[in-house]
Design goal:
Layout (H helix, E strand, L loop, with lengths): L2 H4 L1 H18 L2 H11 L5 H4 L1 H42 L1 H7 L2 H28 L6 H28 L2 H8 L4 H13 L2 H20 L7 H5 L15 H22 L1 H7 L4 H4 L2 H19 L6 H21 L2 H15 L2 H10 L6 H10 L3 H16 L8 H13 L15
Helix pairs in contact: 2-7, 2-8, 3-5, 5-7, 5-11, 5-20, 5-21, 6-7, 6-11, 7-8, 7-20, 8-16, 8-19, 13-18, 13-19, 13-20, 13-21, 13-22, 16-18, 17-18, 17-19, 17-22
Length: 424
């Protein structure tokens, strides 16, 4: 049996997991303006706590997730992660009934906890299930599942929660306190049915994963890509991993800024929310374009590091473009950051874990912890935008892309033994 056929079913199953990641992760872009209205939040800073609550779970729970995986293996760990996500989804029901923002944030943290376990399991799995040199290609395929899910999630949830929101906001300003509370309660209740359905789907898929024939990677499989782990006593002795973790931190930060702030940014430029709610989907479309390019060019025409260099340069160009232009062109530059960000995760992750052998699970957890960039960067952007404006504040992304460029040029090879160097 050829490798492509051997790994087809595992890739489909893991692809469905990436679909789930995308569906929940990119809902945040719509949840931010939705909860700002439903919970009557006073500032963008408060609304961006949606991203913070979601992504901070990765930092807190990634290392515990690696311990769970060592006990359960990849397959059972994925199933447990899905069940935890289902519990978080069910918490949306009492949060909506009480219209309690803190409870919404706690529910998002629980969903993020489940995702931390899923991500800690599935990213090294898809990287190591085939040759490390083509890992970015496989992760790019997973990225298509992820971003298609994000586009679908935004369209569905936007229709359910934000379809008539412009007229609703105008009407809220004319109502007395009791009528306003009733209308806000109706708005908050719109998430109950979709999150209840998602909980059922997650539990069903967890059972499917646990009972499936998904092959379990053995320690021998994890060490086959390199003997570089020999003689190492700690995962922290791998310089390229630590530099990769920083690259993941800043990459996720700028990716979340591009996807989750673009709606509010559009509204600050006087676009109606009924229009601006589609801006995240435009960003995800450009990410899809990048993934498709990665699938057909890596590693046949470009190495993973070369693709990462190109994306980092595009990130600098589009960030500056967003700052120096106005109106729709500026919004378009933010959306085009989806193209710049598209191949960063597919390239950084395998470059950072290459040659770690028995340390792979723990290294994966460290990289998943670095997703905390998505928790930190939106809050920095919110505060910075209060000082210099929503448009100029995007300049904060430029240093991040420059660091990613450094990692793509030199950082991914730092500390590697010459005899174990790969042409990645």
């Amino acid at each position: 049996m050829s490798d492509s056929r051997k790994y087809l079913m595992p890739m489909i199953i893991v692809g469905l997991l990436f679909f789930i990641y995308g569906f929940f992760t990119w809902l945040n872009g719509t949840l931010i303006p939705y909860l700002k209205i439903a919970c009557q939040l006073e500032s963008d800073f408060q609304s961006y706590l949606v991203a913070t609550a979601f992504f901070i779970a990765y930092t807190i729970m990634a290392i515990p997730s690696s311990f769970v995986l060592k006990k359960t293996g990849y397959k059972k760990g994925m199933g447990i992660g899905l069940i935890i996500m289902a519990l978080g989804s069910l918490l949306f029901i009492p949060a909506a009934n009480a219209r309690n923002y803190s409870m919404f944030l706690f529910a998002l943290f629980i969903i993020g906890t489940g995702l931390a376990l899923l991500q800690t399991a599935s990213n090294p799995y898809i990287s190591l299930i085939g040759p490390i040199e083509s890992a970015a290609k496989r992760i790019s395929i997973m990225g298509i599942f992820n971003k298609v899910a994000g586009i679908i999630a935004g369209l569905i949830f936007g229709y359910i929660a934000l379809n008539d929101v412009d007229s609703l906001e105008a009407k809220l300003a004319t109502l007395d306190i009791a009528a306003k509370e009733n209308m806000l309660g109706e708005l908050a209740s719109r998430v109950i049915l979709p999150y209840g359905i998602m909980a059922v789907v997650l539990v069903s898929f967890a059972v499917f994963i646990i009972l499936s024939a998904l092959p379990e990677l053995k320690e021998d499989d994890e060490t086959s890509s390199s003997g570089d782990a020999l003689g190492k006593t700690s995962v922290l002795q791998f310089t390229h991993l630590l530099l990769g973790a920083v690259a993941i931190f800043v990459y996720v930060g700028v990716e979340v800024i591009a996807g989750d702030t673009i709606i509010n940014y559009g509204m600050s430029l006087n676009f109606e929310l009924s229009q601006a709610r589609f801006f995240t989907q435009i960003t995800l479309f450009f990410m899809l374009v990048g993934y498709i390019v990665g699938i057909y060019t890596i590693p046949k025409y470009f190495s993973q590091s070369t693709a990462l260099r190109a994306c980092a340069i595009l990130g600098v160009v589009f960030s500056i473009g967003a700052v120096i232009t106005n109106g729709f062109v500026s919004v378009l530059c933010i959306a085009l950051l989806g193209l710049a960000n598209s191949l960063m995760w597919p390239a950084i992750f395998p470059l950072a874990i290459d040659g770690l052998g028995k340390f792979t699970k723990t290294a994966s957890a460290i990289l998943i912890m670095a997703l905390a960039g998505g928790a930190v960067f939106p809050l920095i952007y919110a505060k910075f935008s209060e000082l210099v404006g929503t448009r100029v504040a995007y300049i904060m992304m430029v240093p991040s892309y420059l660091y990613i460029l450094y990692f793509a040029v030199k950082g991914y090879r730092a500390g590697r033994r010459a005899v174990a160097a790969h042409s990645v």
